[in-house]
């Protein structure tokens, strides 16, 4: 097997790797050898290649970024940060964050070994308080603001899974509630892109209260006949977000192959002692069960939303 591995490396350098693998390797050998070769080249060229999490094929990094982080082979959608989503979906020069952009939770409990701790940064106003934040330049797991999608003004929130798994704490609840109230006041369409592991367990019951808080604000917003709320579920969307504003949209859209659930697979298996199938929480199966309205690939999402907003304006005018 080792000799075969090095033969394939030589074949890759000579440009005949594909032809050789199709003729020589069995399906089992392909599953064993090809990931090893990909790992070898990825280690040697970290700045040039990225490996797909689904099909394990290598993609040129520049090509990967130009396709908005979608695998060119299997169309697997990689996760995006909130800043990347703003760049993709909001018209250039039209994004204005809300005034509460920098608020954060100050009563969060952390263990001594928590990787999110950073005692090198002190807030100017509260010198005795330590700000906990993930090393991506964000103070919370959601960015909220107003902008335009194909020249249509909207109020929009982008959850960011990179910050503590996109968990919903008191600050996240406050920011989303402010966004909803602002959209109601200005009669703007509302869009929330969800990417969350659920309520933030470090904040205890206060994080659970955000479910009711946001849902109440949405009830007030949706009581207006001109309101229009689009919920976009990305991978993963679970827990308290799924159980509250994630499923309250007038239109609910999911990205392909997204993991959408209330309780995670391991939690269900550990609690009920049953085996949960791999695809039971995937967007495609849940769509067939009627859990949401549409599955839209990331390529077409911006244009689809703009057409949806135009249709809404037409029927409410």
From TrEMBL:
The terms describing its cellular component in GO are:
acetyl-CoA carboxylase complex; chloroplast stroma
InterPro entries per the UniProt record, alphabetical: AcCoA_carboxyl_beta, Acetyl_CoA_COase_Trfase_b_su, ClpP/crotonase-like_dom_sf, COA_CT_N
What is the recorded name of this protein?
Acetyl-coenzyme A carboxylase carboxyl transferase subunit beta, chloroplastic
* Gene3D superfamilies, alphabetized: 2-enoyl-CoA Hydratase, Chain A, domain 1
Enumerate the residues binding Zn(2+). Answer: 52, 55, 71, 74
Where does the protein end up?
Answer: Plastid, Chloroplast stroma
Query: Where in this chain does the record put each CoA carboxyltransferase N-terminal domain?
Result: 48-317
Keyword Transferase found? yes
Protein source organism: Phelipanche lavandulacea
**Which prosthetic group or cofactor does it need?**
Zn(2+)
């Amino acid at each position: 097997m080792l000799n075969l591995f090095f033969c394939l490396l030589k074949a890759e350098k000579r440009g005949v790797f594909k032809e050789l693998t199709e003729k020589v390797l069995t399906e089992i050998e392909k599953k064993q050898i090809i990931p090893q070769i990909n790992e070898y080249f990825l280690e040697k060229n970290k700045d040039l290649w990225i490996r797909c999490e689904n099909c394990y094929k290598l993609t040129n990094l520049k090509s990967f970024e130009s396709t908005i982080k979608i695998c060119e082979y299997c169309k697997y959608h990689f996760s995006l940060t909130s800043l990347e989503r703003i760049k993709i979906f909001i018209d250039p020069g039209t994004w204005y964050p809300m005034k509460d952009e920098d608020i954060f939770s100050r009563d969060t409990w952390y263990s001594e070994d928590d990787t999110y701790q950073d005692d090198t940064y002190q807030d100017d106003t509260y010198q005795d308080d330590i700000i906990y934040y993930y090393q991506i330049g964000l103070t919370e797991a959601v960015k909220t603001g107003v902008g335009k999608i194909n020249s249509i003004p909207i109020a929009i929130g982008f959850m960011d899974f990179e910050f503590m798994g996109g968990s919903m704490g008191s600050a996240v609840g406050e920011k989303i509630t402010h966004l909803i109230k602002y959209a109601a006041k200005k009669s703007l369409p509302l869009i929330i892109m969800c990417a969350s592991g659920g309520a933030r367990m470090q904040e205890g019951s206060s994080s659970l209260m955000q479910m009711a808080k946001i849902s109440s604000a949405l009830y007030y917003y949706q009581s207006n006949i001109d309101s229009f709320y689009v919920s976009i579920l990305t991978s993963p969307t679970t827990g308290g977000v799924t159980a509250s504003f994630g499923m309250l949209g007038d239109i609910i859209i999911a990205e392909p192959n997204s993991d959408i659930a209330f309780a995670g697979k391991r939690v269900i298996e550990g609690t009920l002692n049953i085996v949960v199938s791999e695809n039971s929480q995937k967007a495609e199966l849940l769509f067939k069960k009627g859990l949401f309205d549409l599955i839209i690939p990331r390529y077409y999402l911006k244009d689809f939303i703009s057409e949806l907003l135009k249709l809404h304006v037409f029927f409410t005018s």
